[in-house]
Predict the 3D structure of the following.
Amino acid sequence: MQQIGPIWIIEGPNQSKVPFSRSLYINSKDKVLIDTGADPTELKALNDQHGVDLIINTHYHPDHTLHNHLFPNVEKWINPLEFETIQSIEGIALENGVYQEWGPEGVEVLRNHMPKEWVQNLGGISGTYQYEEEYNFSGVKVNFLHTPGHTKGYVTPYFPKLGIVYAGDFDMTSFGPWYFGSDGDIEKFIKSGKQLVELDANTYITGHQKGVFTKQEFMEAMDKFLAIIDQRDEAIDKYVHKGMNFEELTNIGIFYPKKILNTIIIRTWERSGIRKHLHRLGYHVHESSEILLVNK
Ligand SMILES: [Zn+2]
């Protein structure tokens, strides 16, 4: 386990790739765990040896709330915007485009397929922290910066005195930026990404894969990461110019591999993501599935 002063980095299995993520542990007199997607055995050992007083979830996604259920008696907080979202399956369906793409039937499919543990993980969250307010955990100061784009309530924990940022799902993976839920926003993602680079910090810790970046590495990685958005624009624009309609476009596998597009939630995100890019490119999707250029 890597330790940077009072901040411990707890890895998830398989380089913290989805469905896992990296957790941070604040080891001061107050024991605070940020996100619970790390290895369950390590999390249990941590709890047995050192204890956990409080869990902070950066956002509601299952890979970051994955092991909340291992801490049944621990207080759990999420950001104020998403506390609303997690109160019902309908809320989650709305924020992920499930309702928008498939209507009430889609919501029922989600209700029947969502693993019980995920429901339990979100159900155990009892409170919220505030955005942009300094919290002091026995001397370890942290700010929860509102950095929307990945989700609307998404936060980046920033330790100003330590110069550490938990960059989470600004994860710099080759997959590229994720903003495919209806609560995701491309322009906000870009703005938040640029904001992170500007922070007075020397250590950036991502939620998945590589992990620890110096500021220089993070800056360079962010440029490449955000450039994937333009590459996606170009790819989609090319298909539209070939005369493809929306249904055809959503069967190619622009973001996800074609072979997993039959999973409802993946299919939903693929469609929702393509709609966002079409909108960005100035197109409108007609009810007939035809893609029309909007006169600007
Ligand atoms: Zn996420």
